[in-house]
Amino acid sequence: VQWECINPKYKAKKKNYKNSGMVILNQCKVAIDFTASNGDPRNSCSLHYIHPYQPNEYLKALVAVGEICQDYDSDKMFPAFGFGARIPPEYTVSHDFAINFNEDNPECAGIQGVVEAYQSCLPKLQLYGPTNIAPIIQKVAKSASEETNTKEASQYFILLILTDGVITDMADTREAIVHASHLPMSVIIVGVGNADFSDMQMLDGDDGILRSPKGEPVLRDIVQFVPFRNFKHASPAALAKSVLAEVPNQVVDYYNGKGIKPKCSSEMYESSRTLAP
């Protein structure tokens, strides 16, 4: 899928203007909250409840939002991670484990692949805590940082985080987001359940500029927070509009700030031919 980059100034001045080029969203990564605050998966009140016939709250959010992001992922492969659980075989706490338990290849084929990996891993986990999301942001930021060192630097990363509420490493998360704001990536946080999401609103930056604990401001806004409860009965179009409300501008802001021109369709085609096996 090709993502148009629209220059508002050119669009206003040029009658036949279409776009300034295209960007490939090459990688959408998913991170799922497996902390104990979600409730015991064997309990029907749990957000992770394992129901034999119906999707739980996490699956509803994952499928609804994930299918939107899937449209902008060039290879439809989703590296999927979990955080806040004790994982086999030693059952130590991890905040960035592959939910398919394959750390060398955490990719899942499409959102359905993520769903299957989630359903397979959930019974093997011990939900624990705390709710730390800085490690997974740092993990994706590492990939985005490596992308900036490539010749073309046309790939943009999105991290989709599904969580049930209050995070416990706010200072580290703010630091990680400020660092990530310099890189080709955005973070979409989906709130699952009915918890207090006021901290997430702060990370979104809509009410003011997010700063690190040392006072350094974000270079650009890269976080979008979506409380899924507000869209459970809304149309897919309404959810898509909210999820992607800020991402296109975040993409354009990054490339404008770096002075990188989006590649045109023919350039991307030649590049894909070069990279093809």
TrEMBL record:
It holds the Pfam family Copine. GO terms for molecular function: calcium-dependent phospholipid binding; metal ion binding. SMART domains: VWA. One of its GO terms (biological process) is cellular response to calcium ion. Residues 24-227 form the VWFA domain. InterPro entries: Copine (IPR045052), Copine_C (IPR010734), VWF_A (IPR002035), vWFA_dom_sf (IPR036465). Keywords: Calcium, Metal-binding, Repeat. It comes from the Eukaryota. SUPFAM superfamilies: vWA-like. One of its GO terms (cellular component) is plasma membrane. Belongs to the copine family. This is VWFA domain-containing protein. It comes from Myodes glareolus (Bank vole).
